[in-house]
Fold this protein.
Amino acid sequence: MAQKEWAEKDYYRDLGVSSTADADEIKKAYRKIAREDHPDKNPGDAAAEERFKKASEAYSVVGDKEKRAEYDELKRLVAAGGGFGGYGNFGAGATAPGYGGFGSTGFGGSGADFDVSDLFGAGGASNLNDVFGGMFGGRGAGGRSGGTRASRRVRQTRGADVETDITLEFREATKGVTVPIRLTNPAPCVTCHGSGAKPGTSPQRCPTCSGSGLVSENRGAFGFSRPCEDCSGTGTRVEEKCQDCGGTGRKTRSRTITVRVPAGVVDGQKVRLAGQGAAGERGAPAGDLFVTVHVTPDKVFSRSGDDLMLTVPVSYTELVLGGAVTVPTLDSKVRVRIPQSTPDGTTLRVRGRGVNKRNGASGDLLVTVKVEVPKNLDEAAMSTLRKYAEEEKRAGFDPRAGWEGNVG
């Protein structure tokens, strides 16, 4: 969108945030509107669709650090009374909307003596050129007498980054999965293929700026550049606009993207798809798509890095006498040996049966054994246990030996 059109927009209001909101606040506001007013969730609701479109457009500008700075500066100039293109006029006694003049009458015609270096510090004219070069997308002019023109470069407005969320089962996340995602955002116009020009025509080099996207002016000792208004700083003009997209080269539509989620992704991790975000204007590069992965807990497994963890119930006799238990893994089952006299709560390690790593190796399976106490033993079993308890005492076994000395 041209900077001239930005002056008529209030992007912060469209997102429901203040102009001082930080990047995180802006992102959260956009995601909230996208979730609530997405056309897929509100079929036939024209008002919701309009709110979604406004929020998408607003985020494409104030969600981008560089474009936000330009937008804020432009709004400041407009608020000061300069309007678009009111960049100042430097001459004897002249004034410019929003700035005042630089001349023998001083700054803003106050009548006080004024030295440019007082305002811009040591460097005077060159510093002033730096200010205007940074403000309007050009570069500061050199210090040659009589002024120089800013370096010329065509600006392409990159499309906004887009964020979305998916939810995976625990085992899908650990093994990796391919999932389709439905998106509704600005995409290249299928009619003009993103050029913005009517089919059968093409954008032409702007004669005003000779394709540079900038026009330069010399004002006495100063030289500065500003975006060409005739081509909005793109360097080309569309004589016959595509009717489907109005010459922007992009149009909001729904599309399905296949996302490959790598094995081992964790809850909250983001997968980046370069160039799959919102399309840029008139063939400019698209932004990126960031997919935040949410992982639901599993009934059996949990994770510690690349290690897979589970707790297996065992009997007291299995820990005392030793033995083996069969436990699941992500792919099959495995037998785990329990050494004789293993303490309750011990974690046994099975090498290479955990989560796959990116280098092709795998983490380990960590099996914690936990005694399950029987609840319904018959009298014969209870009698046997009593005899065993007597044998324990006779053998001198005391489970709390030394315990009191370790408490407190």
